[in-house]
Design a protein that fits this description.
By secondary structure, the protein is mainly alpha-helical. The chain has one domain (3-193). It has helices at 3-26, 31-53, 59-62, 65-79, 81-85, 89-113, 117-138, 152-167, 174-193. The protein is globular and about 50 Å long.
Length: 203
């Protein structure tokens, strides 16, 4: 795997683990609950994608550096909650980087199994946002991606771009890097400009 993408993956795992752990702490969960939520947020999307693709056992459960990173980040968040509570924008940017990395890696994996545009976009999206959906469900909340923010949309666009670039020929890692960058940049711009998709306002 490309070194840049691997580094971004770790950034994403850490950012998502912190995000899930913070949610667990705010919900009053104990240490086990916080670890479960942090782990699920960081790795749940990749595990779900692997299951859908027939990869057994899922990579996130057998490649130990990934689950260890998620658990350590979750545990440290539990110990130093007050410090992480004051880390706002840096964590959001790390989340955006992780989103881009998971989008590119998920889309790449799906294409290597079957070059179907729907499969590539769906698996890229599930890999990137699936953990956040699991986090919100376990927290008894409506998943954020269904209610606000330009989040999953950036992932769908990034996955689609990966498919178009890869469809043109053999992978040379430029397709992965471009998908990663576009998803990340779109997410950062959306945060800065407060982009949201249209919705019906009940009056």
């Amino acid at each position: 795997m490309n070194l840049i993408l691997e580094l971004a993956n770790y950034i994403g795992i850490i950012a998502f683990a912190i995000s899930g752990s913070m949610k667990g702490i705010k919900k009053g969960m104990d240490l086990l609950g916080v670890l479960v939520l942090g782990f699920s947020t960081a790795l749940g999307g990749g595990i779900t994608a692997d299951i859908l693709l027939g990869i057994k056992p899922p990579t996130n459960l057998v490649y130990l550096p990934y689950p260890l990173t998620a658990l350590i980040a979750s545990f440290l968040t539990f110990l130093f909650y007050k410090i992480f509570a004051n880390v706002g924008k840096p964590l959001l940017y790390a989340d955006a980087i992780g989103l881009g990395a998971f989008t590119a890696s998920g889309a790449s994996l799906a294409y290597s199994i079957d070059p179907s545009p729907l499969l590539v976009i769906m698996i890229g999206t599930i890999t990137a946002v699936g953990g956040g959906v699991i986090r919100d469900i376990l927290s008894n909340e409506v998943p954020v991606i269904l209610t606000r923010e330009f989040y999953a949309t950036a992932v769908i666009i990034g996955s689609g771009i990966y498919f178009l670039l890869r469809y043109e020929g053999e992978s040379n890692y430029y397709d992965i890097i471009i998908s990663f960058l576009i998803t990340t940049v779109l997410r950062i711009i959306a945060m800065k400009l407060k982009w949201e998709l249209p919705k019906v306002i009940n009056t």
